[in-house]
Amino acid sequence: MNQFSERNTKNLFKKHKIQPLKRLGQNFLIDKAAIKKIIEAADINSSDVVLEIGPGSGALTQELAKKAKKVIAIDKDYKMIDILKETLKDFNNVEIIQGDILKKSFRIKNYKIVGNLPFYLSAPVIRQFLESYSPPKEMILVVQKEVGQRICANPPKMSILAVSVQFYSRPEIISYLSKRSFWPSPKVDSVIIKISPEIPRTPKINRDLFFKIVKAGFSQPRKQLINNIYRGLKIDKESAEKWLLENKIQPSQRAETLNIEDWLNLTRSFFF
Fold first, then answer.
1. Least-confidence region, from 7-16, 27-36, 120-129
2. Which of 4, 105, 179, 217 is 20 to 30 A removed from 209 (C-alpha atoms)?
3. Contacts by 35-38, CB closer than 8 A, 24 or more apart
4. CA torsion sign, 209 to 251 to 158 to 25?
5. 260, 202 in Cβ contact below 8 A?
6. What percentage of the chain exceeds 70 in pLDDT?
7. 3 state SS of 142
8. Which domains does the chain have, with CATH numbers?
9. pLDDT (0 to 100) of residue 202
10. Half-sphere exposure of 225 (CA within 13 A, CB side)
11. What tens digit of pLDDT does each residue of 25-35 get?
12. CA-based end-to-end distance of the chain
C-alpha cells in the first residue's frame, strides 16, 4: 500500500491538525510512478549528498534516503517539521531543517539538489544555486509545466529566464507529470527537469555585462532587437545596428530568436 496515497496523506495532515498552505504553493507528491521518475533522473548513489528543497510530507525524501549517503531536507513551513520527523524517523541519514532556502547558506560540495518547487520559488532558487560558490552537480526539479518549458526553450521561443538558466547550465525536460500526481491537485500540470551546470563557460565572460545586454534585449520582447538595444544600453542606433550585423544578427530580429551563443558573442564584442 502506498504510504503517501491521497487518503493516507490527508489522514497524516488531519492527525497533525494542519492544512496545505496555498500561499506557499504546497502541492505534495502522492504518485509513486512520479517519484520513481525523479529518483531515476537524479541517479543517486551511496556517496551522494542530496539537498532536498520542499520535502513536504517526506514521500520523495524516503526514496532519496534509501540511496544517498545523506539527505538535507529543508522546508519553510515549520508545521511540516513534525510530519517529517514522523515519516522519516527510521532514517538516520536525513537532516531536517526548517527555514527559507533563499536565506540559508550551505557549505557543501559535490552535492545534488532535488526539489518540488512552487511557481514563485523556481527562478530564484535555480539562479541562486547556479551562481553560488559551489554549484550542485545536478538539479532535478519538479516545476510547473509552463516554467519548465520556458527554462528549456530554444529559439524562437527564448525568454530571459531561459537565457539566465542556459548561461550556466544545460536544462532538459525529463518527464511530464499530471496534476493528479499531487495533493491537493494544482490547476496545471508539472514537469521534471534536469539542470546540469556548465562551469567552464562563465569565467570567460563578463557576467554583469552579459546580463545587462540580455536585460536590454528583452526589455520589450515583442519589439525589434535594435530598438531595445540602443535604448536599453544608451548607445546610438547606428552603432548598435553595426554591432548586431557584425555578429550576424539582423536588427529586425526579436530577442526570443537569439540563442545563448548569440548573446555570448554580443558580450565578447561589446566595445561601447
1. 7-16
2. 105
3. 35/59, 35/60, 35/63, 36/63, 37/174, 37/175, 37/177, 37/192, 38/114, 38/140, 38/142, 38/192
4. positive
5. no
6. 97
7. strand
8. 6-199 (3.40.50.150), 205-268 (1.10.8.100)
9. 55
10. 23
11. 788 898 999 99
12. 65
Per the structure block, which three cell numbers stand in for 23?
Answer: 500561499
* C-alpha cell belonging to residue 182: 499531487
Residue 126 zone, left/alpha/beta (φ > 0; ψ -120 to 50; rest):
alpha
The residue assigned the cell 557549505 is 107
The counts of H helices and E strands in the chain are: 11, 9
The type of residue at 126 is I
Q: What is the pLDDT of residue 23?
A: 74
Q: Which residues pair with 49 in a beta bridge?
A: 70, 111
CA 113 to chain centre: 10
Reduce the DSSP state of residue 190 to 3 states and report it: strand
The contacts of residue 53 (CB under 8 Å, 6+ apart) are 74, 101, 113, 114, 115, 116, 117, 121, 125
Kindly provide the residue ranges of all beta strands, DSSP E only, lying in the chain, ordered along the sequence.
28-29, 49-53, 70-75, 94-98, 111-116, 138-144, 169-177, 182-183, 190-197
Average pLDDT, the chain: 92
Q: What DSSP character marks residue 261?
A: H
pTM of the predicted model, to two decimals? 0.90
